Records
---
Amino acid sequence: MIHLAKLSANKCNLGVRSAATKINDVFTESNLTTIKTEIETNNKVNYSEDERKQEDVKLFTKCFTEMYNICRRNEWGDPFSYARSREIHMANTLNHTVAPTLSGADAFDSEGACEYKSTVSKVINATYNGISVQDTWEHQWEYMVAKKIGCYKNHYYARYDGPDIVELYKMPGELVLSYMKDRLKTKFEKENKGKDPRLGITIPKSYIITNASRII
């Protein structure tokens, strides 16, 4: 009897969660429809500059809230932490699975964990910042291969123009490491690394377009 009661309770809980999810889906869909309608209406109205700003503040607040709600429902993490919103956008564009946490992989493609980099510059590039410094170059490179770069088979680089991805590339991790090795060693061996001793390196357009596969 106790076992049956537990099963019944579990089914009830599942039913409640399922119903709650459906309600949230409808609620969010309704909110998004409302926001879309408001945007279309506001674009047609000849507001004064002050009125336009007030309306934009209201719309931004609604969009901000809905963006957060969508990400929370899908367990995508906080879209406003670092470049998380672009990572989510890239993953959805590529039909990848968004990583559930901010540390480690950004997403998962058909070959496993992958790394994303995005830029809003006029030309495509990929910047890797905040690389922890190890005690020797041998240990540094082991760290790069096993934990920082080489652990991701594929690296994806996107260039944004506003909300749109205008360029998107895929580069194998071994080619990323190949570009970094000598350049990073020079930086590692530099005696004065400044106030922030962590390492950083930017992969330029020339290397990306030569060694990566263009998707968009």
---
Amino acid sequence: MKNIEILKRLYKNYTKKYLKKIIFSVFLSLIVAGSTSSIAWLLDPAIKKIFIEKDQTLILIIPILIIVAFATKGLSLYFAKVTMIGVGEEVKKDVTLIADCSSSPRLKGIFNSMKNQFKKE
């Protein structure tokens, strides 16, 4: 079996089922990256305007935006990790079930009956 055939099989059997969750996790990871850069972008004016220039107009706005950026980063990172860990556990469950069924004819029959029972329509 060639490498490309193996990759196609792995995509079809394991990745394709969880593609929506993987894309959602990538989207959350982009939010993490954006919020991380926004923190750095907000800290520069906070130091310049509030501490050096003693500008009181931004004394509430910048700290609130920094808190929002940190909260967004934390929540996005948490849900991205939870989603990907869940996908990994489901794939591990599928691989284990297939490996067990291939070694036991009795489990293979149970697995096939369950597979037909829970088919998506």
---
Amino acid sequence: MRAILAAALLALAPAAPAAAQSSAAAAQAPVTVEYYYRIKWGASVDFKRLYEKNHAPLLREMQKSGFIRSIRVDEPYTHLAGGPRWDLRVTIVFRDAATAISDPEWDRIWGAASAKLFPDKAVFDAEEDRRFAMLEEHWDVIVNEVKGP
């Protein structure tokens, strides 16, 4: 997932040397990523329960550590057709591009938080495997705010 985000962010980066200064500023700017989950029919309640039990606490720990600025979880109010259907969207505003794609410090803090919050790694891994088995599809979208004219 982080490799896909890295490729997308690199594709958006300016190539001209004159843009190096603005690229450096852009690298320090917050990055917003929307994570979409299409859950198998009948598994929504269990998926959300496991998400809140296992994944959300880790995200909150990363927020406390300053890597994440905000986390928002949404579900659609209306029913969507099969193709474009998503059941849960998690929008995360990361501190900067490095945090969103590949930051060794993120990995270190995530590992420490995981060990502290979930000392029984076998149970945690089994529940995360079960949560992901409930998905039909999962995708990530890096979004940019469009300023008005």
---
Amino acid sequence: MKNIQPILMIMIALIMTSLACGTLDFGIESQITDDELSNKFNLQESNLEEFGTTEETFQSTDETGDEPATVVNQPETKPGVPDEVTLGPLVYGSSDVGLAVIEDQTVRIADSPVDFGLLWDYSPVSGRLAYASEFFYGSEPSGNVVPNYPISDLWVYDYTSGQSELWLSDYVNQAVWAPDGERITASIFNPMSNQLDLVLVSGPDQYELVATCTSGYFSWSPNGDILAYAVSSSMVTGMPVECVGLFLVTGMQSGDYKVERVPVQETEAFSNNYPGADPFWTFEQDALIFSETFWVVPLDGSPPFTPQFPDGVSAADFPRPNLSFWNIEQWQLIVHAFGGRSGMGGVWVFEFSADLRTIENYYRLGDPANDGNSDIMLVSWWKYGESILVADGDVPEPKPLINEFWSPPKVWSLIDQTWTVLEYQQ
């Protein structure tokens, strides 16, 4: 795992450099039409190769010998498909590192059923995996503009049928499954306007426009009816003023899309489009939480704020997250960060007050020995709101599973702060 972390950081640095370079000359009124965009997608039949099925399986057994811990709650999970398929905090990684697959109260590290350069997202509702066949490459906007957006393609693998389809052949900057598991929300580069547009993709070359002049920094509301996205002037040089801000798209279920601006002046609350730092919804407080900056943005238009930390620390003292979860039941923010020279890497749990204005407690899992950084890696929810699955790289001489990226999995209880060991099974 230690050898792959520098590779991850180099990849992320390249992505962020590509986002920062160049100057874009935006024209809000110049939008590519559906027909023009369609013509640019050269769709092909899937050429899916068969891959090996090497895997190792773990099943939970707590230290008291009681029943296995429950897998993350997914009441709408499609029968016969995994509850989760993930690369953990390796937000952008290739298929050769193996996938963590959670199903039927077990965890297995398995070879990927498809060869991918980027893993976009997995939906347990439909049992489908969204991925890209190759890693990011630079966009080629029209006019004298330096390529600015990292893009790739969009493929979908179905765990039920074992088949893969190409949905979009180019221009995809980000892709996330909608809550219904049938459509994919994608930010796609528009070469005519040199901007990102948000679209809903429902099949090969089947998509509809949701909003223009957007970003790859978006999040679905839990009820699936609202899509939030944030655009900052620091994301892209030359971003039009009217495009900058926090926006809500209503009518996502009915198809009657309406874009509404949330009156937020402090755009540093969402200062960058960084992997693993999309906003989280918290309905009880009617706000969005941005895990990279710890900014809390009320949706009623009242001023955003950052919570007060104990001991005089601040959000700036912690490295940027690569993977984050929001525990809406316990008001906890769980983040993983590769610490680098900061000595602050690992899995952190931040416990908020009910009004979100104070961090009442925070702690890091494990006993870091790697220059202050912890090698415990956040993987997934285990039981939503109660426990998380991690790969424990802090144990002495960890036994690699398929390769050095994955360490032995364990479950951490967010309620009583205890470990559950997952025993190896053939």
